[in-house]
Amino acid sequence: GLRATIECMGPRFVIGVGNFAEKRAREALTSLNVTIGRVPHPSPASPMANRGWAEQMTAQLRAMGMNLPVKPNSDNLAVAACSTKGSRTRRRG
User: What residues are paired with 80 via a beta bridge?
Assistant: First the structure.
């Protein structure tokens, strides 16, 4: 489940897309040393969340303490794989 994945990969941040996802992450990840946050869910039911969604996402992630690149590129992406023996991360590209 989510907890096992987070324990394996060891991220500093877990971001819920919408209120429900954030709430579930907080419930599942109790006692783990990880920052949990939320970004708006782009949905027809929430027109406000759809206006300037990318800008809202960037602003909220930065407010959580994430250092985001000015312009994403392939050097900023990592692909992680987990096994029962631990985790490993390799650069994509």
Answer: 89
As a whole number of angstroms, the distance between CA 50 and CA 38 comes to 15
pTM over 0.90: no
Q: What are 37's strand-pairing partners? A: 15
Beta bridge partners of 43: 46
Which H helix or E strand runs over 88?
Answer: strand 86-91
Instruction: Look up residue 58 and give its two tokens.
Output: 């960037």
Angstrom distance (rounded) from CA 6 to CA 46: 29
| Residues 67-92: tens digit of each pLDDT | 887 665 545 444 444 544 444 444 44
d(CA 6, CA 29): 8
Decide if 37 contacts 15 (C-beta within 8 A): yes
pLDDT in tens, 23-66: 999 999 999 999 999 888 777 776 766 778 778 888 888 898 88
